[in-house]
Every structure is written in structure tokens, then in C-alpha cells.
Design a protein that fits this description.
This protein is of the alpha/beta class. It has a single domain, classed as 3-Layer(aba) Sandwich (Rossmann fold). Helices cover 35% and strands 21% of the residues. The protein contains 9 helices and 10 strands. The protein has an 8-stranded mixed β-sheet, sandwiched between helices. Strands 7-8 form a two-stranded antiparallel sheet. Helix 1 packs across helix 2. The radius of gyration is 18 Å and the shape is globular. The two termini are 19 Å apart.
Length: 283
């Protein structure tokens, strides 16, 4: 199995860079990482999926990819078109999706929106999107607008070297040092005085509008392709076990797998995760 290699693609929004492994002619899988992660999220898993043409882009604003132009918002709707633009640039008409966390949410939308293009879906630690109750619509909108207007006045945190950044990621996400280091090394850029995150600060802004749970249920029920949903136990606070099980049950051709582990189980338990999804994706 070859080591993951760098690639870049020119898209309408700018240049997307990422990591790729496998060979042409193998089952095509587009791997989408989580919020504030990057393509290195799939480095531990890739050696355990040797029969796939696995392409892991840094989504816009993450890792080594360009930030969205000024005036554009980071949204799930926009990310759907980015995923399709990546597939088009690769020459892929039909392909499978492997997503973790935010990437699994984006993959859910793509699978529901474009059933003619998606062969299979693996969603790790998310299915659909984060929901909002209708009563918080105005409050959320006001918070998002205020935060957006205030963002230009904020200063980026500068780390004197890589090690404090690694420790910060370990603390923020409960990650092992090895997993955190993979993400940090691809997720920082050199600046005067040290290093800062390469991710676009706009990614930290609150989402202006979220779907309701009823809308997400309709979305999940519209995913027609075979799907496998992989969740860690214990569940994340923002997606309690009863909710995630109810969503998975709506999949027309879905299977739910629950493994003991943390949110980044695909990085920290890659062998177990690959055993659960590898045969499904290699069909």
C-alpha cells in the first residue's frame, strides 16, 4: 500500500489540496473530514483500506486548501457544491462517500441531493446536520450576525512552536498525541513569532440558520444509496443516542454500528473501524 500522496485541484472557489492513496480502477471513495480537522484525519485509516481509490480533500478553509473568498459563507449547502466540484475535477461521475463528523453531515446532504451520483455512504459520528428548534431562529440569527461583524477585530493565536498547538488539540478534542499531531502538522502555518492555525477564522462563526429535526429526518429518509452509520459509545452530547438511533432507522438501506471509543475513533481505532466499513466500501 502506498503512502498517502499530495494532490491539488483547481475549483471555482479556489484551490483544494489534499491526500490520496490507492489506484485508479479501484472503488472510488471521497473522504470528508470533520470541522477544523483536515485530510490527515484519514491517514491512520488509509493503510487498512488498501483496495480503495481514496481521495481526502482539505475542505475549503481547512488544512492546506484555499479559504473561501471574502463575502462568502461556510455552509453545508456550499459544501455540497464543493464536494461535487471535487468529484467533477477528478472525472468521477459515480463514487462513494466516507465522512467523519461535519464531513459525515455534508456527505449526508450530498447523498440525499444527488442519488444518481452516490454509490454508497459511510457516515462516522454524524448523520444529517445539527438541528435547531424553531424558537431559537431569531436568537441564532442575531448571534451569528453579531459574531461575523466582530470577527475582523480578533487576533489569531500564535504558538511559539508546534508542541503547544498539539497539546491544545489534545485537550480540546480528547485526542491521543499521535492523532493530534497528524492534524496539527497539516493544520498550522508559519507566521512571525511562530505558528498559527491555517484554518479560516470564519469557520468558528455560529451558523446563521439550521434545519429543524423534522427537516433532517426528511433529509435522512431521502438517502437512497446503501448506507452504513458508525457511532462511538459514549455518544456526543449534541447527538444523544436516542436521536442518532432514530435518524439511522430512517435510512431506506442503512445499517447502524456502534463501537466503544471516542469521537475520532477512525483515527485512534483505525483497524476496528476499517473492519466495520472496508468490505462495505470495496463492493
Amino acid at each position: 500500500m502506498d503512502v498517502m500522496r499530495d494532490f491539488e485541484l483547481a475549483l471555482p472557489m479556489g484551490t483544494v489540496r489534499g491526500l490520496r492513496t490507492g489506484s485508479e480502477g479501484a472503488p472510488r471513495v471521497l473522504a470528508l473530514h470533520g470541522w477544523l480537522d483536515n485530510a490527515a484525519s484519514f491517514v491512520p485509516l488509509a493503510p487498512h483500506l488498501p483496495v480503495l481509490d481514496l481521495v481526502a480533500p482539505d475542505l475549503p478553509g481547512h488544512g492546506s486548501s484555499d479559504h473561501l473568498p471574502r463575502g462568502m459563507d461556510y455552509s453545508f449547502a456550499g459544501a455540497v457544491h464543493t464536494v461535487l466540484d471535487v468529484a467533477d475535477a477528478l472525472g468521477w461521475e459515480r463514487f462513494s462517500l466516507l465522512g467523519h463528523s461535519m464531513g459525515a453531515g455534508i456527505a449526508s446532504l450530498v447523498a440525499a441531493a444527488c442519488p444518481e451520483r452516490i454509490e454508497r455512504l459511510v457516515a462516522i459520528e454524524a448523520l444529517g446536520a445539527l438541528a435547531e428548534v424553531p424558537e431559537r431562529t431569531v436568537e441564532r440569527l442575531r448571534e451569528a450576525v453579531a459574531a461575523t461583524r466582530a470577527l475582523p477585530g480578533k487576533r489569531l493565536r500564535v504558538f511559539p512552536d508546534i508542541e503547544p498547538a498539539v497539546r491544545a488539540r489534545m485537550k480540546a478534542n480528547g485526542l491521543t498525541e499521535d492523532a493530534a499531531r497528524l492534524l496539527v502538522e497539516r493544520g498550522v502555518v508559519a507566521v512571525d513569532g511562530g505558528w498559527c492555525w491555517s484554518s479560516d477564522p470564519r469557520l468558528t462563526l455560529p451558523t446563521m440558520v439550521r434545519m429543524t429535526e423534522a427537516q433532517i429526518e426528511d433529509l435522512v429518509a431521502g438517502i437512497a444509496c446503501p448506507a452504513k452509520v458508525l457511532f462511538a459509545d459514549p455518544a456526543q452530547p449534541y447527538l444523544p443516542d436516542p436521536v442518532r438511533r432514530a435518524r439511522a432507522a430512517l435510512l431506506p438501506a442503512g445499517e447502524l454500528v456502534v463501537l466503544d471509543g471516542g469521537h475520532h475513533l477512525h483515527m485512534e481505532q483505525p483497524r476496528e473501524v476499517a473492519a466495520a466499513i472496508g468490505g462495505f466500501l470495496s463492493v
